[in-house]
Amino acid sequence: MRGHRRRRGGMAVVGLTGGIGMGKTTVGAMLRRLGARIFDADAVVHRLQGPGGRALPAIGRLVPGAVRDGVLDRAALRRAVVADPALFGKLEGIIHPMVLEECHAFLRAARRARCPIVVLDIPLLYEAGMDALCDRVIAVSAPGGVQRHRVLARGHMDRAQVEAIIARQMDDRQRRARADHVIRTGLSRALAWRQVRAVVASLRHAEERGST
Ligand SMILES: CC(C)(COP(=O)(O)OP(=O)(O)OC[C@H]1O[C@@H](n2cnc3c(N)ncnc32)[C@H](O)[C@@H]1O)[C@@H](O)C(=O)NCCC(=O)NCCS
Ligand SMILES: Nc1ncnc2c1ncn2[C@@H]1O[C@H](COP(=O)(O)OP(=O)(O)OP(=O)(O)O)[C@@H](O)[C@H]1O
């Protein structure tokens, strides 16, 4: 538990992490409705890789077939990095420093705007050591079967690709053991809401006591 660390500049920084398809975006949206400002690492990655994105030139050099006329073919990039783990590591080497930079810029802006609670929604929060930026961490979790079913139901990844991504991520049990709060998303949305409200109430309670 990092439960009683001092808040940084009057703002609670909450990490939100979990494996692919565990429910980070869904829980992030609930936290937003309760007043938190969200840093969405996946959305930042998509912007960096989108038309005119900063990461495109380096990705084009790494996987030449993946960038054509300044546009990234996500499916081609996914196939290439899943087939070759060394390439996956090199792609992360391009993207992660840029995500970290954007995250610091987000935190500076949120502090200037006096946001009471900010949430860093980052799949690889622990793997990339970005939990060091957080006062508390929430892990979202669901049974492995539910996780795989959800990702396959989206229809753009095959079984092998899902397994390759899961293999690159921290084991769910380890993540749950390290986090301050665990939100279970394997049951109904109503239950997830109840857990999210309880976490926010505990943050607000800590604020009143002057610690997180
Ligand atoms: C592998 C890529 C091409 C797959 O693209 P695709 O459009 O199919 O998926 P998307 O980007 O929406 O990611 C879906 C989920 O996969 C997982 N994931 C993505 N990248 C990684 C990674 N390097 N390691 C582990 N899990 C990852 C995350 O849970 C993410 O939420 C893409 O995710 C990518 O470029 N990843 C490298 C950047 C990265 O490390 N992102 C993680 C967040 S910082
Ligand atoms: N509590 C819940 N009850 C029911 N379904 C849920 C719940 N939470 C998430 N889901 C469903 O699971 C799927 C994955 O959720 P979500 O997109 O939030 O996960 P994610 O962790 O952000 O995924 P990714 O790592 O791929 O970005 C979605 O279809 C969502 O509707």
UniProtKB/TrEMBL annotation:
<keyword id="KW-0418">Kinase</keyword>
<keyword id="KW-0963">Cytoplasm</keyword>
<dbReference type="InterPro" id="IPR001977">
    <property type="entry name" value="Depp_CoAkinase"/>
</dbReference>
<dbReference type="Pfam" id="PF01121">
    <property type="entry name" value="CoaE"/>
</dbReference>
<dbReference type="InterPro" id="IPR027417">
    <property type="entry name" value="P-loop_NTPase"/>
</dbReference>
<dbReference type="GO" id="GO:0015937">
    <property type="term" value="P:coenzyme A biosynthetic process"/>
</dbReference>
<dbReference type="GO" id="GO:0005737">
    <property type="term" value="C:cytoplasm"/>
</dbReference>
<comment type="function">
    <text>Catalyzes the phosphorylation of the 3'-hydroxyl group of dephosphocoenzyme A to form coenzyme A.</text>
</comment>
<dbReference type="GO" id="GO:0004140">
    <property type="term" value="F:dephospho-CoA kinase activity"/>
</dbReference>
<protein>
    <recommendedName>
        <fullName>Dephospho-CoA kinase</fullName>
        <ecNumber>2.7.1.24</ecNumber>
    </recommendedName>
</protein>
<feature type="binding site">
    <location>
        <begin position="21"/>
        <end position="26"/>
    </location>
    <ligand>
        <name>ATP</name>
    </ligand>
</feature>
<dbReference type="GO" id="GO:0005524">
    <property type="term" value="F:ATP binding"/>
</dbReference>
<comment type="similarity">
    <text>Belongs to the CoaE family.</text>
</comment>
<keyword id="KW-0173">Coenzyme A biosynthesis</keyword>
<keyword id="KW-0067">ATP-binding</keyword>
<comment type="pathway">
    <text>Cofactor biosynthesis; coenzyme A biosynthesis; CoA from (R)-pantothenate: step 5/5.</text>
</comment>
<keyword id="KW-0547">Nucleotide-binding</keyword>
<keyword id="KW-0808">Transferase</keyword>
